[in-house]
Amino acid sequence: MASNRKLGCLSIFLFVALCASLFVNIVLMATAFQRLGGIREAEPIPRFREILLQRGARATTDKIAVITMRGLISSSLPGNVTDSMVDDMRAALQQARDDSRVKAIVLEVDSPGGEVTASDAIYSALVKVRARKPVVVYMDSLAASGGYYVSCGGKFLMASDTTITGSIGVIIQTLNYEQLFNKIGLASVVFKSGKFKDMLNGARPITPEERELVQSFIMKTYDKFLGIVAKERNLPADLLRNTIADGRILSGKDAFEHKLIDGLGELEDAFGKAKELGNAPDAKVVKYGPPFSLSRFFRIFGEADSKIELQLPKQLVPQLEGGRAYFLPSYYAP
Questions:
Q1: Count: domains in the chain
Q2: Residues 137, 8 share a domain
Q3: Which of the four, 78, 147, 206, 270, has the lowest number of CB atoms within 10 Å?
Q4: In a 10 Å sphere around its CB, with 0-12 CB exposed, 13-18 middle and 19+ buried, how is residue 271 labelled?
C-alpha cells in the first residue's frame, strides 16, 4: 500500500511538472512567432507596485503616492516599465491621478536635468496632475536645470539646505576637430541641400551665420524656461534674467531666499506637507516601484539576441549627444 501511495504521488508530481513545462513552452513559442511575424500586442498602461514607506491609520484607505525621478532626463533612456523614462513618469503620474485613494503626490527629484523636450513633457504631465490633486516636489541632492524645470510643475516645492538647484539655462555643445584632422591627413567631405544643413559639423569652423542661428534657438528656448519659472514662482522675468537665472547653481537655502522654492526640510517633511495639502493626516505613504510582469518576463526570452553584453559602470558625467538642446549645469558638459 505504501509503495502504491508513493507511486501515486510521483505520478501526480510528474503530471503537474509536465503541464507546467507545456505551458511555458507554449508561451515561449507564441512569443517567438510574434517576433518572427512582427506582431506585437498592445500592452495596457502599466500599474506600478506600491511599496509601503509609512503606515497610516487602520480606519482610512487614504494614501500619499511617492514618485521618484532620478538621473538624466532623456527620452532615449529606457524606463523600468515603459519604453522610456519619460513614459515611466507619465504612467506613474497618471496612476496616482486616477487613484481616488491617493490624496496627494510627492515627487522626489534627484536629477541634474537633461533634454529640453523630455523635461517639458514631464513638466506638462505634472501640471495636469496638479490640477486634480496636490503635488509636493522634494528636491534631493540635485534638482538643477531640467530638474528644476520639472519641479516647477509642483504646487509646493521643498529642498534641503544643501540641495543643488537653479542652473536656469540651456546648452548645446559640439566638438571641433578640424586641427586634429589636419594633423593626421583626414578631410570631411559633405554634400548638403542647404548652407545650414551641417552647421554643427566639427570638421570645419562654425560660420557667423550659423553661430547666430544656434544662439537664437538657445535664447528662445531659454526664454520659455524663464517664462515658466516667472509664472510658476510669481517672480518678474526681468529680475530673474538679470540676477539668478544666468545659469548659476544655488543651494537649497539660497533658492529659498530667492523664492525659487517654498520651504526647507527633509523628505519626511514633504510627506507631512502632502498630507496637509491633501487633507489626509492619517494617510499611509507608498512609493511607486516597477511591477512584476509575466509578459515582460517572457518577452525577455523572445527578444534576447544570442550575444553577451558587458555592463560597464554608469558614468558620473552624462555623455551629451551632439545637436541636442539640454537643460544642464555647465559643469555637466564635458
A1: 2
A2: no
A3: 78
A4: buried
